[in-house]
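Example record used in the benchmark description.
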Amino acid sequence: MTDAAKVAELEDQLNDFDPAKRKSALNKLIDVLNAGDVACEDKQAWVNLHCHSFCSYNGYGYSPSRLVWMAKRMGLGVIGLVDFDIFDGVDEFYEAGRLLGVRTVAGMETRAYFPELADKEINSPGEPGITYHMGSGFPSGSIPASQKAFAEDLRQRARHRNDLVLEKVNPFLDPVKLRYEKDVLPLTPTGNATERHMCAAYEAKAEHMFPDPNKRAQYWSDKLGIEKDEAKALDSAKLQGLIRSKTMKSGGVGYQQPTEDTFPLMRDINAFVAAMGGIPTLTWLDGTRAGEEADKLLDLHQEAGSVAINIVPDRNWNLKDAADKKTKVENLYEIVQKADERGLPVQVGTEMNAPGLKFVDDFDAAELEPVRASFERGAYIIYGHVVEQIRSGNGYVSDWASQEFSSVADKNNYFEKLGRETLSLEALSV
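Model output (structure tokens):
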């Protein structure tokens, strides 16, 4: 086996559902790395603080360890884990960062009810009052006793929503029906299934029930309301995306219209994040919806305790339609400028929660030049918070930080400097 083939095989093993096999593969890759048999780039000014792993859903099946390994090979300045509703991958992610000497930040994403914007779409299309929301920079995956009930509630709400979806989608896609325990959960390493797992399971079940490609294409044509030839030409990613949009999202038969009881309050999420030692982080989509009017949105979030902002830049500049691109690039520049003025660290990433998404955004793109420094600075501030939170408990939103710094600018400067000077968490205990 050639060295390249050996490395590729070990990289594949990093995605094994067995933690012991992942750990063994990582240790062997470190040996290969130390022997000088693996080339690593150096792109310290490139960062990605929003990567989902297979603990929730990654479009390539990447584990937390695989994400850190890829960051090492590319030479990213900071890499961040963000899974939905859980902390299952956090400790593995940090351990890989320590072993590889990579700056790592772990967060969590969920959906929340935002009563102050109950009548407006925010960043969840078709769902007024519902916002995607995050916590960034958790020091570990350990959940304090005082927060276990809230954390378990997040997980159980997600499971309940999935059950309701299957109740309606199964009859619609009959005879292709899923059993949650048998067909969906085996696709996850820690039992945290998402809509994307269910779509993958529906695709697999249809392939099993209709092995003939023509009959399978006719089935999807009938169920999804598309031409047979179109169904036959769909690759896996596009088919799963269509299943999700046609059956589970707004307008689909399995869609569950959220109420204020479906999701936790955004303020409660912020309190939970702070109690976990993280940074309450708002998420911004593209500024085109009524609930994302910049000043009002930031005012409401800051009043509710959000102190950082997450953006997916690729959705705002890497667009084919010229008019759409112009609008969204301008909105991107506006929100970053306003975040900078308010001292909100800007966290960016690509999500990677669907096939085809980049591992890291193109920081050399001309469209990102005006905001590139803010993206880099925000990453190091948040990583600096992780360093301080782990070593002393005095992170970005601690009482110490509130008393120590006379301004948010001083606080940001302190945490950015700490983040840039600390290569990895190797010397710190978690």
